[in-house]
Amino acid sequence: MNISFQNSLDFARQMDQADPLKSYREQFHIPVQESGEPYIYFCGNSLGCQPKSVRAFIETELKDWEMLGVEGHFHAKNPWMPYHEFLTESSARIVGALPEEVVVMNSLTVNLHLMMASFYRPDAKRYKIMIEADAFPSDIYAVKSQLIHHGFDPEEGLIMLQPKEGEHCVWQEDIEAAIRENGDQLALILLGGVNYYTGQVFDFEKITKIGHEVGAKVGFDLAHAVGNIQLKLHDWNVDFACWCTYKYLNSGPGGVGGCFVHVRNASDKNLPRFAGWWGHDKETRFQMGPEFDPIPTAEGWQLSNAPVLAMASLRASLAIFDEVGMDGLVEKSKKLTGYLLFLLQDIGPEIEIITPSDPKQRGCQLSLLTGANGREIFERITKAGIICDWREPNVIRLAPVPLYNSFEDVWRFAEILKD
Predict the structure, then answer these.
(1) CA–CA dist 42, 397 (Å, integer)
(2) Could you give the count of Cα atoms lying within 13 Å of 360 in the half-sphere of its Cβ?
(3) From CA 259, how far away is CA 268, in angstroms rounded?
(4) Which one of 33, 46, 111, 365 has the minimum C-beta count within 10 Å?
(5) Where are the alpha helices (DSSP H) in 120-229?
(6) Which residues fall within 8 angstroms of residue 340, CB to CB, at 6 or more apart?
(7) Which residues, in sequence order, are CB contacts of 232 under 8 Å at separation 6+?
(8) How far, rounded to the nearest angstrom, does the alpha carbon of residue 104 sit from its chain's CA centroid?
(9) Is the pLDDT of residue 1 over 80?
């Protein structure tokens, strides 16, 4: 990315004019201020904007429910019984997987627990779990509860990856060293693909390779990675991954989650799991037999039938992703986030950014470290028409999303922050 950025409104508008994805902004509802002006919305890493097509997708299902009742499971325009299958191929493209490795189901932490039921199989010697010290709290709660469930003390069983003193990110060489140091006792590595707090992207492929070398299973929480960065889960040989869809995938508040299980695992019917009837072989499911026969794909981890209305919302957004493709999104994201980084650095040294400056180690999020008055700064920029994200104790997270944010948005934000 060899662009000579300039700190001017004219330059930002020139970049927008040349942007091949500029028209997609019009396909989203951007939240509006009381004045009628749209906010500058940099919070897609928390909740994505609503695609304008969502209403029609949901209304189609509401109409079929109204007219068909239970018969909609087989005779709706988009039959409800296999509804999750309508999302599979699009999701697989986004995460770099085979279709049989992906299923949309449940919510993120539920899926993490289901995956750990299969892939965290500790014994007296190999029982430890590795995670970032500043992982999203729900992940830490989940792995601690798994340790306790299996009779281990989290104080002993949890390896928390800490940054070096005076730093904010855990660097690759330190992760590798920690894996090798604990290899004999390490049962599971579970990291955020993109750390929610710092915005750091981890090296999936190397971490997975080294984890497997020491005998551990490797999984990732993709909440802040899916729809944000280029993923190749199948090629990287990851054991499993889970994600939510309401951030970069714009499925709406509390939207349905997603799950990846590598084909070498998904095809193993003998792999232990928590079972539910929707994971049972489709040909015999309605014979209502007492013995569970799992589908030999990621679908074999399903518990219940599809939440159709929530999935309809996600279908609307995935149709946009199918049009654009992750290559185009990532290309714009690097330019947009690079421009934001340039403008923030241009303000002066008082702006401290804890997200790696290397584009390969970040997505479209930049995290600003603030001082004692950070909350006040955040509230002031909110009043000035910016929606971004505050995270305790002192970080403002900014996410210029390539589908609906513009270079002018980025420039105007920097001017407001400078004031």
Answers:
(1) 8
(2) 4
(3) 16
(4) 33
(5) 137-149, 154-157, 172-181, 204-213
(6) 366, 398, 400, 410, 413, 414
(7) 96, 204, 205
(8) 13
(9) no
411: closest CA among 397, 402, 400, 403? 400
Using CA atoms in the order 260, 262, 265, 267, what is the torsion angle rounded to 10 degrees? Answer: 90
Amino acid, res. 235: D
Token pair 């579970």 is found at: 190
Angle, helices 172-181 vs 204-213, to 10°: value is 10
- Whether residue 386 contacts residue 40, with contact meaning beta carbons closer than 8 Å, is answered with yes
Question: What SS3 class is residue 390?
Answer: strand
Q: Which fold has domain 9-49+325-418?
A: Aspartate Aminotransferase, domain 1 (3.90.1150)
Q: Could you tell me the two tokens for 203?
A: 């090296």
Interacting residues of 68 by C-beta distance below 8 A, sequence separation 6+: 75, 76
Tell me the two tokens of residue 185.
């006792």
pTM of the model: 0.96
| 19 CB-near residues (< 8 Å, 6+ apart) | 332, 406, 407
Burial of residue 342 (number of CB atoms within 10 Å: 0-12, 13-18, 19+) = middle
Q: Tens digits of per-residue pLDDT, 87-136?
A: 999 999 999 999 999 999 999 999 999 999 999 999 999 999 999 999 99
Domain 9-49+325-418 and domain 61-322 have a common topology: no
Beta strands in 228-375 (DSSP E): 240-243, 258-261, 352-353, 366-369
CA-to-CA distance for 258 and 94, rounded, in angstroms?
11
**Per-domain residue ranges of the chain:** 9-49+325-418, 61-322
How much is the average pLDDT of 280-306? 96
Among the residues of 158-299, which ranges form H helices?
172-181, 204-213, 263-266
Buried b / exposed e along 114-149 (16+ C-beta atoms within 10 A): bbbbbbbebeeebbbbbbbebbbeebbebbbebbee
pLDDT above 80 (res 2): no
